[in-house]
Amino acid sequence: MSGQGDARRRDGRPGGPQNRPQGRSHGQRGSQQAGGQPRGRRGDEPRGPQRTVQPARRVAYDVLRAVSESDAYANLILPPAIAEAGLGPQDAALATELAYGTLRRRGTYDAIIASAADRPAEEIDPAVLDALRLATHQLLATRVASHAAVNESVNLVASTQGRGASSFANAVLRRIARETPGEWEERIESSARSDDERLALRSAHPVWIIRALRRALAAEGRADELDDLLDADNASPEVTLVALPGLADPGEPRRPYAPTAFGSPGGDPHRVIAATGGTVRVQDEGSQLVALALAAAAPITSGERWLDLCAGPGGKTALLAAIAREHDVTLEANEVIPTRARLVRNALRAVPGEVVVHEEDGRSFGASHPGAFDRILVDAPCTGLGALRRRPEARWRKTPADVAELVPLQVELLSSALDALAPGGIVAYVTCSPHLAETTGVVQEVLRGRTDITELDARGVLQGVSASPIDLAGDGSGRVQLWPHRHGTDAMFLALLQRTATEQGDANSEERD
User: Fold this and answer.
1) Which residues are annotated as a binding site for S-adenosyl-L-methionine?
2) Hey, which of 56, 77, 216, 302 would disulfide with 434, CB 3.0 to 4.6 Å?
3) Which are the catalytic amino acids?
């Protein structure tokens, strides 16, 4: 048996039973397999001489390995990896395109690799598979010369997994290089069992996500925009910055909707951020719009008390804090996870004044602070299906089970926020997901059990906030769904809910005034 296992290692397959790290809560996984040896290489097999690999490709490959092995987030680990490697602007751009592009289209590339290797992708050693994915992206989706893509990827395998695995990789990649992207697309789609599977292979989205996005678009009467949305998910997003009101002025080019938003002038945006002391920072325009909408949902009265209930990592909190500072309003934040609470405090350093950051369970926050706040942002934990273009690995990690797990949490958080509202107060329920179960489904579930809540016209509020007319399709509810393909933003959802005012509530308001 051991001899058979060794032979499989040499041709790029795992040498024993699959020992993939098992998923844990919050997307954490173990980063090392039992025994400490990399999969696909015998402990006594020589790796051969070190071979030259372009630094940009090495960085991209290391990011792919971290994502595969330890559930790392590419957007968090790529910038420090680029800095540590000392990459210049051109190589940094190449590393980013290679890593993000490979991660986005992983499902499609796995189907092509499986066809070329004549075996399922999951039977190929993970380290070898990541190198094959990286090379396939270069061969089929970039202008990188075929010989460079093949040779350097084979060198990657040879330097990490040994000569036997590199021979296997070389054979697979040369088969892939012999056909055009169109020919590969036709070949893998011919094996699809349904139209949705065919679309999944073509667009590099799991079938369940395609169906969820189609339903969300159909709710607006725009199911025919699905192809445009899938294409937008696979495009590299522009970097958008926010200028905190009263502390910084937006630069150029201005973004079309949020008056606080502008595009990155080019180069490393973190240099701009550092130069302003944090009063300018990276933030999607959709994220800015939903925070601005909460502030604009009703005239602001001096002395109001605001809350960001699920504040981590703190981008929307800082924007609300800047607005609150301009109107003599007190803002508080809550984040149950201590490490994320520290991120919130760091995000708030650029805003003068004190913001109390609680570390309580948001589901019980309303019970411990009943009727205490005039405006509350509930940026609920969600699947993040609205930010697939920014988090390229997310589409392959999420499953329908995540939705089923998150929806009860979202219902509890929104219900808790409504309990924490003063009479006349307003909650903004926000998700970075267009999945109907996480958006309208949650709102409807919460409203079904309450008679003290009125839903406001969030579409009208957002139109009033926007610097130019914004195309907001509706389902008749007044809720807002933003879209990457239509607005150039993440697919943010927004509903505004107001607690019915009472005579006692009016009296409390007068006391605060």
Assistant:
1) 310-316, 335, 361, 379
2) 216
3) 432
Cα 22 to Cα 26: distance, rounded to the nearest angstrom: 12
Instruction: Kindly give, in sequence order, each residue whose CB lies less than 8 Å from that of residue 17, ignoring residues fewer than 6 positions away.
Output: none
Angle at 59 between CA 55 and CA 60, to 5 degrees: 120
- DSSP codes joined into one string, 172-232: HHHHHHTS-HHHHHHHHHTT-SSHHHHHHHHHT--HHHHHHHHHHHHTTT-GGGHHHHHHH
pLDDT (tens digit per residue) in 369-425: 999 999 999 999 999 999 999 999 999 999 999 999 999 999 999 999 999 999 999
Residue 337 has pLDDT above 80, yes or no: yes
Q: Is-contact 132 153, C-beta < 8 A?
A: yes
Residues 6+ apart with CB under 8 A from 248: 276, 279, 280
pLDDT in tens, 116-161: 999 999 999 999 999 999 999 999 999 989 999 999 999 999 988 8
- The residues, ordered by sequence, that sit 6+ positions from 208 with a Cβ below 8 Å of its Cβ are 399, 400
Rounded to an integer, the average pLDDT of 424-446 is 98
Rounded Cα distance between 14 and 35, Å, is 14
Using only C-alpha atoms, what is the Rg of the chain? Answer: 25
CB count within 10 Å of CB 107 equals 17
Do residues 251 and 243 make contact, with C-beta atoms less than 8 angstroms apart? yes
Mean pLDDT of 318-326: 98
Residues 6+ apart with CB under 8 A from 464: 296
